[in-house]
């Protein structure tokens, strides 16, 4: 009996000590209750929580590993300076040399991220655009000359190359898995070489942001918005998650002063992967095109279409001969998902479609007249480069598609670009470009190159009336 009692007593004691040890270890993280009396003598209980160090984000691993693959990029461009109002007396002795445009070198800088150990670096297109010389400095202070492999103004992504081996790289993450409020680090060289390899932290403030710039140029914008401090010079630098994975390329800030004022924007790495792969493999981006113009879904449209939420894109127009038309999509349809991924707005459509190549297929979930429907689309080439031949035999020309007609060259579709802006209409026949007669699309492309600054087109429309188009190159 005594032995049994002793055993029970020891068990209780051991359990109590274990519980004490657990409380002792976890105590700082647990809620602590304190009872006090208010001014009227009533008992009031307060609870406080002490955060242990482990509850705060630790960025040391991500920062120390990722910073090795972020580089400082210095570029040289030819700047033009026009000398005006030269004194006639001065010109009489020294001639017109000083009244002509003069060129001098100008310096610029940005950042870049090594994505392959053999020296391929991703940066922004606007960092290296027009550069005559590019110099890259690694975090260990070693310097290299770099060459441009390819650029893509549509996404503001560029690839440059240095001659190196076994260079440090950053693993590529999945920007689609980023969550609002998730911690991220911005790494780059803000404000020049003096602040190389600067690391700042913030959270993901929003996803799928677009920033219309008023230029009229087509751009794919589905930016990650963060509050990590980014300044001029950070362009092309890395946005990484707590694992040290690259989730974006820092690109822009929104500011009234030109300096950081709370918000910064990055191109999602899932877009960067696609663009970088094409630039490395082909030197240009093989971009897929759905062939629609889109509008936002409001509550009225959502109610009419019997949508479960106010999201998706409303089709304003389906381009003639496009992938969308061939898939059976029509004006007034509402697209709500592509390959199972929810579509919320036009930016999400652009981001999704940018991940496909011409010829790839995707499942489209849409609503028509309040009823759900599905179709399979086979993406076509975006045909953004003049002279590029599409799968249907048409030739790209400033956003439009051209093909040979019985007499002249037919405008099959206008698309989005300078032809559309100039007022071109589908079905029109181009007869002359810059004063020269044309018989096939390749003639149009070749003759357009002859003009110094502008393209002049003469033709007849579908009603037999003469039309004229003019636009700058």
Please provide a written account of the structure.
The chain is globular and about 95 Å long. It starts with a helix and ends with a strand. The protein is an alpha+beta fold. The protein folds into 3 domains: 59-70 and 112-125 and 150-284, Thrombin, subunit H (Beta Barrel), CATH 2.40.10; 288-381, Pdz3 Domain (Roll); 395-472, Pdz3 Domain. The longest helix has 25 residues, at 2-26. 19% of the residues lie in helices and 37% in strands. The strands form 6 sheets. Strands 23, 24, 25, 26, 27, 28 and 29 form a 7-stranded antiparallel beta sheet that branches. It has a 6-stranded antiparallel barrel with strand order 3-4-5-8-7-6. A 6-stranded antiparallel beta barrel has the order 9-10-11-14-13-12. It has helices at 2-26, 60-66, 88-94, 125-128, 269-282, 299-304, 323-326, 346-353, 418-422, 441-450; strands at residues 31-37, 43-49, 70-81, 102-114, 120-124, 131-137, 143-152, 157-162, 183-188, 198-209, 223-226, 238-240, 246-253, 264-268, 288-289, 292-296, 313-318, 334-338, 341-342, 361-368, 371-378, 380-381, 395-397, 400-404, 409-413, 429-433, 436-437, 454-460, 466-472. The model is unreliable at 5-30 and 89-94 (pLDDT under 50).
């Amino acid at each position: 009996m005594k032995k049994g009692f002793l055993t029970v007593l020891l068990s209780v004691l051991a359990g109590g000590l274990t519980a004490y040890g657990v409380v002792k270890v976890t105590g700082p993280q647990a809620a602590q209750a304190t009872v006090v009396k208010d001014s009227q003598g009533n008992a009031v209980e307060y609870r406080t929580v002490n955060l242990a160090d482990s509850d705060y984000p630790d960025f040391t691993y991500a920062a120390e590993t990722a910073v090795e693959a972020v580089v400082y990029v210095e570029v040289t461009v030819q700047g033009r300076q026009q000398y005006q109002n030269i004194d006639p007396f001065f010109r009489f002795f020294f001639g017109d040399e000083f009244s002509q445009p003069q060129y001098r070198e100008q310096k610029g800088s940005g950042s870049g991220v090594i994505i392959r150990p053999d020296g391929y670096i991703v940066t922004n297109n606007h960092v290296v655009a027009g550069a005559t010389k590019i110099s890259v400095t690694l975090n260990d202070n070693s310097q290299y000359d770099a060459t441009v492999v390819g650029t893509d103004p549509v996404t503001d992504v560029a690839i440059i190359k240095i001659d190196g081996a076994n260079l440090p790289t950053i693993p590529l993450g999945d920007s689609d898995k980023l969550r609002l409020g998730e911690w991220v680090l911005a790494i780059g060289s803000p404000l020049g070489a003096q602040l190389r390899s600067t690391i700042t932290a913030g959270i993901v403030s929003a996803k799928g942001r677009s920033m219309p710039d008023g230029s009229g140029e087509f751009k794919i914008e589905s930016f990650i918005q963060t509050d990590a401090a980014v300044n001029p010079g950070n362009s092309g630098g890395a946005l990484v998650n707590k694992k040290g994975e690259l989730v974006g390329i820092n690109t822009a800030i929104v500011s009234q002063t030109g300096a950081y004022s709370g918000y910064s924007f990055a191109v999602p790495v899932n877009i960067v992967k696609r663009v970088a792969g094409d630039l490395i493999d082909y030197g240009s981006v093989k971009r897929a095109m759905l062939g629609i113009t889109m509008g936002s879904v409001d509550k009225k449209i959502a109610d009419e279409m019997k949508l479960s939420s106010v999201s998706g894109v409303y089709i304003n127009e389906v381009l003639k001969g496009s992938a969308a038309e061939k898939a059976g999509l029509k004006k007034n349809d509402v697209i709500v998902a592509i390959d199972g991924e929810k579509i919320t707005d036009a930016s999400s459509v652009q981001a999704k479609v940018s991940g496909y190549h011409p010829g790839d297929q995707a499942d489209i979930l849409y609503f028509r007249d309040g009823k759900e429907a599905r179709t399979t689309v086979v993406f076509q080439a975006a045909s953004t480069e003049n002279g590029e031949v599409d799968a249907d035999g048409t030739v790209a020309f400033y956003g439009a598609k051209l093909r040979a007609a019985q007499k002249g060259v037919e405008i099959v579709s206008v698309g989005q670009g300078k032809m559309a802006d100039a007022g071109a209409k589908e079905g029109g026949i181009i007869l002359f470009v810059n004063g020269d007669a044309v018989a096939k699309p390749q003639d149009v492309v070749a003759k357009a190159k002859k003009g110094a600054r502008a393209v002049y087109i003469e033709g007849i429309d579908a009603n037999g009336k003469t039309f004229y188009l003019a636009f700058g190159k």
